[in-house]
Structure prediction request, 99 residues.
Amino acid sequence: GVNVPVDVEIDRMFGLYLVGHLPLGEQASLYALVGFTDVKATFSAAGYSAPDNDSGFTYGFGADLYASEQFGINAEYTQYLDETGYDLSAVSLGVKLHF
Prediction:
């Protein structure tokens, strides 16, 4: 087979998710999420482009760690879509500031 590089541009993405937290004391919690994601994207290769809409089941997990009541960090993995030929997932790190 011939491999052709494909560029993907996400035009729109939205979702609805349920999140359940498991507290690990006052300074940490683990969580899981499940839900639904809808994505509109444009795929481009070799001078041609085509839009596509996909939607489906989403799941993920993460952790919140707090150094104080005002400051914490977050790490999360989310599998948004897993379609034939491609998947859309993300690993994210964040900072939480409560004021």
